[in-house]
Design goal:
Blueprint: E1 6-8, H1 13-21, H2 23-26, E2 44-48, E3 52-58, E4 67-72, E5 75-82, E6 101-108, E7 119-123, E8 126-132, H3 135-139
Antiparallel strand pairs: 1-6, 2-3, 3-8, 4-5, 5-6, 7-8
Length: 148
C-alpha cells in the first residue's frame, strides 16, 4: 500500500510543555508534532487522484517573489514571508488575527512522485502545487514468472 502525504503541523511552545507533561499519553504521536521556530503555518489541503497529488495553501497577501518551494528527499517544503503593510509607521492594533512574517509548511510525500514535473501556480491568494505520480507506480510493475 503506498504511503499517503503527511502534513506536519507545528505547535506553540506552551503546548510543547503541555505535551511533555502528558508525554506518556501522546508519545507515539510526538513525532508528528515538531517544535515551532516562530513561523506561522498557512492552511493547507492535500488531494490525491489516480495520476497526481495536489497541495493547496492559503497565501492571501503573499507576493509570488516571497514564496519558495523545495522538494527534497520526500519532503515538500513551502516557505516565505508575508509583510504587514501597516508596519511602516506607528500603528496601534485594536485586533490582530492575520499572521505576518515568515511562514513554513512541510508535507511528507510518498516515494512515487515525479519531482522533476512538480508545478506551482499562485492565483487569487491560493497557491496550488501539482505533483504527478510516477507512471510505473500507478500501473504497477509486471513481474516475470520463471519456470525451472
Amino acid at each position: 500500500m503506498p504511503k499517503k502525504p503527511l502534513i506536519i503541523t507545528r505547535i506553540d511552545r506552551a503546548n510543547v510543555d503541555l505535551s511533555r507533561v502528558f508525554g506518556r499519553f501522546v508519545s507515539p504521536w510526538q513525532q508528528f508534532l515538531p517544535i515551532t521556530d516562530g513561523k506561522w503555518q498557512p492552511n493547507a489541503d492535500v488531494l490525491e487522484t489516480d495520476e497526481l497529488f495536489i497541495v493547496r495553501l492559503e497565501l492571501a497577501g503573499v507576493p509570488r517573489e516571497q514564496i519558495s518551494i523545495v522538494y527534497q528527499e520526500g519532503r515538500l517544503v513551502i516557505f516565505g514571508q508575508r509583510q504587514d503593510p501597516m508596519a511602516k509607521g506607528p500603528t496601534r492594533y485594536l485586533q490582530l488575527e492575520i499572521n505576518y512574517h515568515e511562514f513554513e509548511r512541510v508535507i511528507l510525500m510518498p516515494d512515487d512522485v515525479q519531482e522533476d514535473k512538480i508545478e506551482a501556480k499562485l492565483q487569487d491568494g491560493m497557491l496550488q502545487i501539482v505533483i504527478p505520480k510516477q507512471k510505473e507506480a500507478m500501473m504497477g510493475r509486471q513481474i516475470k514468472v520463471n519456470v525451472n
